[in-house]
Design brief:
Layout lengths: L4 E7 L3 H12 L4 E4 L15 E2 L9 H17 L4 E10 L2 H4 L3 H9 L1 H4 L5 E3 L1 H7 L9 E10 L1 H14 L3 E3 L2 E9 L2 E9 L5 E11 L5 H7 L7 E10 L7 E4 L8 E6 L2 E5 L3 E2 L11 H11 L11 E11 L14 E5 L4 E6 L5 H16 L21 H8 L3 H11 L3 H10 L6 E3 L4 E2 H10 L5 H8 L12 H12 L3 H19 L6 H16 L19
Parallel strand pairs: 1-2, 1-10, 2-7, 4-12, 10-18
Antiparallel strand pairs: 3-6, 4-6, 5-6, 8-9, 9-10, 11-14, 11-15, 11-16, 12-13, 13-14, 17-18, 19-20
Helix pairs in contact: 1-7, 1-10, 11-12, 14-16, 16-17
The structure holds flavin-adenine dinucleotide.
The site of flavin-adenine dinucleotide has 40 residues, from α1, β8, β11 and β16.
Length: 549
C-alpha cells in the first residue's frame, strides 16, 4: 500500500479515537489518525479523569460490569498514569441519602475485582479526622475509593502506541470532505491547519470518533446522526485543599457534585446541562460556577476562601434519548454502522474508550476479512513496563525527589530516557515550571518524541502552565525552548505565546474574583511589561479551509 492508501482512517484524537487507532494498528490494519487540533484537545481534556466503578449508573448493571472490568484493564496497561483516590461522603441529614442503600451493594459487587475495600461507614469524629474542613454538624460519613487516570497522557500514550504499531498520526489536520463512488466512501480530504495545505488519502473505512462533532462529520458524509449534547463545567482551585475527594448530594437539585484533589490542584465539578452551544466556543457560565460553589459549600463551608485559578467546560456526546431527565440518560454507547464505509460512535465515556475501540475494531476487521483478535487489554502502554524507584534515580542523577515523583506520574519507566539526557546536558536539570514542577530535559524530550507543535500541546503533555501561577513564570522560558527545538521565528514565537494566553484566558475570565484578580493583574503585568506583548500586533488567526485552497 502506498503512503496515501489506508485500511482505516480514524477521525478524532480524543480518548475514543486514539483507542481505536491503537487497536486497529495492533491488529495489523494500515491506520491513519487525524485530529483538527492536538491529541486530547477537546472533551476528554475537560473531564475529571475518573475511571469510575460506574456506581452512578447502577440502574444499568451492564455498564457497572463494563466499568469495573475496564478499571482492571487500565490498572494492567496504564497503572503508571493512574491513582487510587479515597472519597468521603459527609452526611448532614440522613434523608438526603435515604434510598441510596443500593449504592453500597452495587459498589461491593465488584470491589474485590477492582482491588478496593468495601464502603465504610464512619462516625462524625472519624469523618472530621479524615477531613477537618467538613461541616462541623456532620452526623456520619461514608468512605470509598475510585481510580483516576491522567486523560491527556492516556490519549497521548494510545496515539504513541498506535504509531509504534505502524499507524500514521496527524494533528492539526481537519477532515473537510469525503470522496465517494456509488455512495461508498473511497477517500477523504483534510486541511493541514499549520501548513495550509489540502491533502487527500484513499481508505476503505472511516471511523468517526469526533465526540460532540460526530453529527457534523456524519452530515459531511451525507448520513443522519443524532446526539444529545450535554455541557459540563469544572472550577479549578489553586492547590490540593482537601485530603480526600468529597462528594455530596446536599445540592439545590439533589444531584451529586464533587471536590477532588487533582494533580497539584483541586477540581470542583460538575454541571450537566442539555446544550445547544457551539462546542468550539464553550466557557463555564456564572450560573454554573455559583451552582458548584453553593452546592459544595453545604459540606465544605470554607470553600469560598480558596482561590479559583480557572474553569473549564466540555460537552458529553450522549445518546439521543428524549423525554428523559439529563441525569437518567444512559452513559452507555452505541455504534452507528452507516453502510457507506462510515462508522460513528454515539455516547460513551472516558472509562469505556478501550471497550468502545475493541467493539468498533471487531466490526472493522469483520468488514475487511481480518481475523486478528484484540490485545489492547493485555499489552501495556509505553512506560507501564515496570516499577520505578525514584529514590535510586534521585541519587544517580542528583535530581530532587519531588521533581522525580511528578515525572514518574507522567512517564513511568520512560523517565530514565529523560534523565539520561542530563548526563550530556547537566544544565537541563533546571526547573522551568515550578508549579508542577517540570525540568528542561523533560520539555526537550517531549518536543523530540511526542510531536507537540505549540505551547498548548506542551501544556497537555506536561501540565505546564496549569498550576497556581497559570504560566506566569514558565511561558516565556518554555516558548524559548520550543522555538529553539522547532526553529520557530519571531512572529511564530509571539503567536504561540498569545495563543497560549488566549486559551488560558478563556478559562480564567469567567472565574475572576477575590485574590485571583490580584494574581491575574500580576500575570498581565508580566506579559505586558516583561514580554511587551501588549505592543505586538501580529495576526494570529488560523485561516479556515476554503474549497480549492
Ligand atoms: C465535565 C465533564 C466531565 C467528565 N468526566 C468524566 C469522567 O470523570 N470519567 C469518564 O469516564 N468520562 C467523563 N466525561 C466524559 C468524557 O470526557 C467523554 O465521554 C469523552 O472524553 C469523549 O471523548 P471523545 O474522544 O469521544 O471526544 P473528544 O475528546 O471531544 O474528541 C473528539 C475529537 O475530534 C476532533 N475533531 C472534530 N472534528 C474534526 C474534524 N473535522 N477533523 C478532525 N478532527 C476532528 C476534535 O478536535 C476532538 O479532539 C466527562 C465529560 C465532561 C464534559
Amino acid at each position: 500500500m502506498s503512503d496515501s492508501e489506508f485500511d482505516v482512517v480514524v477521525i478524532g484524537g480524543g480518548s475514543t479515537g486514539t483507542a481505536v487507532a491503537r487497536d486497529c494498528a495492533m491488529r495489523g490494519l494500515k491506520t491513519l489518525l487525524l485530529d483538527r487540533d492536538d491529541i486530547a484537545s477537546a472533551s476528554v481534556g475537560t473531564c475529571a479523569g475518573m475511571i469510575s466503578s460506574g456506581l452512578k449508573y447502577r440502574g444499568e448493571p451492564e455498564i457497572v460490569k463494563m466499568c469495573s472490568s475496564e478499571v482492571v484493564h487500565f490498572n494492567h496497561i496504564a497503572r503508571h498514569i493512574m491513582s487510587k483516590n479515597p472519597i468521603l461522603v459527609p452526611i448532614l441529614d440522613f434523608s438526603t441519602v435515604a434510598g441510596d442503600g443500593d449504592y453500597v451493594d452495587s459498589y461491593a459487587e465488584y470491589a474485590e475485582e477492582r482491588d478496593v475495600p468495601a464502603m465504610l461507614f464512619l462516625t462524625p469524629e472519624a469523618t472530621l479526622e479524615i477531613e477537618p474542613l467538613v461541616h462541623p454538624n456532620v452526623i456520619a460519613g461514608v468512605y470509598y475509593e475510585e481510580f483516576f487516570i491522567n486523560p491527556f497522557r492516556l490519549c497521548l500514550l494510545q496515539a504513541l502506541d498506535a504509531r509504534r504499531h505502524g499507524a500514521s498520526i496527524k494533528t492539526y489536520c481537519e477532515l473537510v470532505k469525503f470522496e465517494t463512488f456509488e455512495n461508498e466512501i473511497k477517500g477523504i480530504v483534510y486541511y493541514n491547519r499549520i501548513t495550509g495545505a489540502t491533502e487527500r488519502v484513499n481508505t476503505k473505512i472511516v471511523v468517526n470518533a469526533t465526540g460532540p462533532w460526530a453529527h457534523k462529520i456524519a452530515r459531511l458524509a451525507g448520513v443522519p446522526l443524532d446526539l444529545r449534547l450535554n455541557k459540563g463545567a469544572h472550577v479549578i482551585l489553586d492547590r490540593r485543599i482537601v485530603n480526600v475527594g468529597i462528594t455530596t448530594k446536599e445540592t439545590v437539585d439533589g444531584r451529586w457534585v464533587y471536590l477532588f484533589p487533582h494533580e497539584n490542584t483541586t477540581l470542583l465539578g460538575t454541571t450537566a446541562l442539555d446544550t445547544w452551544e457551539d462546542p468550539d466556543a464553550l466557557v463555564a457560565s456564572y450560573d454554573e460556577i455559583e451552582y458548584l460553589l453553593s452546592s459544595i459549600e453545604t459540606v465544605i463551608p470554607s470553600i469560598r476562601e480558596a482561590r479559583i485559578i480557572r474553569t473549564m467546560a466540555g460537552i458529553r456526546p450522549l445518546v439521543p434519548d428524549w423525554k428523559v431527565p439529563e441525569d437518567q440518560v444512559t452513559r452507555g454507547y452505541r455504534i452507528a454502522n452507516h453502510d457507506n464505509g462510515l462508522i460513528s460512535f454515539i455516547g460513551g465515556k472516558l472509562v469505556m474508550c478501550r471497550h468502545m475501540a475493541e467493539a468498533v475494531t471487531d466490526l472493522v476487521c469483520r468488514k475487511l476479512g481480518n481475523d486478528a483478535v484484540c490485545t489492547t487489554h493485555e499489552k501495556p502502554l509505553p512506560g507501564n513496563e515496570d516499577d520505578v524507584d525514584i529514590e535510586l534515580l534521585s541519587e544517580e542523577y542528583d535530581i530532587k525527589m519531588h521533581v522525580l515523583e511528578r515525572m514518574r506520574a507522567r512517564r513511568g519507566t520512560e523517565i530514565t530516557k529523560i534523565l539520561e539526557l542530563t548526563k550530556d546536558h547537566p544544565e537541563w536539570k533546571t526547573t522551568i515550571c515550578t508549579c508542577e514542577p517540570v525540568i528542561e530535559a523533560e520539555i526537550r524530550y517531549t518536543i523530540r518524541e511526542e510531536f507537540p507543535q505549540t505551547l498548548n500541546d506542551l501544556r497537555r503533555r506536561l501540565r505546564i502552565g496549569t498550576g497556581p501561577c497559570q504560566g506566569t513564570s514558565c511561558t516565556f522560558k518554555t516558548a524559548a525552548i520550543l522555538s529553539e527545538e522547532l526553529n520557530l521565528e519571531g512572529d511564530d514565537f509571539l503567536v504561540d505565546i498569545l495563543d497560549f494566553r488566549a486559551e488560558r484566558w478563556k478559562g480564567i475570565r469567567p472565574s475572576m474574583r477575590g485574590e485571583q484578580l490580584v494574581q491575574e493583574e500580576l500575570a498581565q503585568g508580566m506579559y505586558s511589561c516583561v514580554g511587551n506583548l501588549d505592543q505586538s500586533d501580529v495576526d494570529y488567526d488560523i485561516k479556515p479551509w476554503e474549497e480549492g485552497s
